Amino acid sequence: MFNPKYRITEYFLSLTEKIVQLQSRINDSNIQFAVLNKLQKQAMSLTVKSSTTIEGNSLSMEQVQALAEKREITAEFSQKQEVINYFSALDWVLKNHDNQITEERILFLHRIICNKLIREEALGEYKKKQNYIVNEKNIITYTPPSPEETREMISKLLIWLNADASRNPIIESAIFHHWFVSIHPFSDGNGRMARLLSQWILYKNEFDAKHIYYLDNFYSSDRDRYYQKITQTRELDYDFTYWIDYVAEGLFVTIKEVYDKLQELRINTETAIILSDKQQQLLEVLRYQGRVDTTYLQKSLNVNRSRINQLITPLIEAGIVEVEGKARATKYFLKKSKT
Length: 339
Known about the structure:
single chain, mainly alpha, Fic-like fold, Arc Repressor Mutant, subunit A, two-stranded antiparallel sheet, 4 strands, globular
């Protein structure tokens, strides 16, 4: 029987309270279809980019988006195939997330995620040989359970997962993520599978009803901490308390970023603005760079000064972007949202 140990901390309760508030505001937003569609595509591309980057894939965001649009790019076959596979797997989960997670569906997803990347006979099959986790110096840092133990451990994990429909989805998703990647049931694809299945759990519980979150970007943005938190839990004899806190922190950061995007777009019950691709890029620059001048925007967007004025004027008029200074000293920045 799988019976994970954890405590509910004040930090977790504080984070979940903030998450619930932000989710309520997002779900109550009157998001136009065109904007929602754009946010969903961005979330999907960010999720695919981030989860594959964690495993060492070096494709850029532009290349990932090109593959999402079925456009050809110049890159190594394995790197392209890894991204294409993850898009296919994530798309399948989005269409089937109301279904229960079963062993059969896990094995099916593994076939999608590792298609053309490993031997055909290993697709959708548990590992036949002992696998190991090694660091950058090729030193073994963790030995997963043996092949003989794998099927039974996955079975017990699924019994636990499907036994209590009232369990907090953040806790459920976090524990499943960690324990699955610790079992390391496959010869390859374990990290991608763990993150995708944990996301499925959130979808199934209607945690991300609009499918616009991208938690894996939080993990990818500080990969060292992600691995440190996984290791910490093992060192604490699989007390999942701090891992759960970490996942909740990631969800809050992710949802706050999505909420801020919606605030920038001024999408609510009263007003809405649909941005062009260049305007979206402009807002991304302001989000990550803070105050910038016209010259910086020109270089970032590869357009002339006149075009910058055309792009930014509607955003200023809508109250999304604010201006400081005059003439050549003018700086642009995002209007801070109230939370």
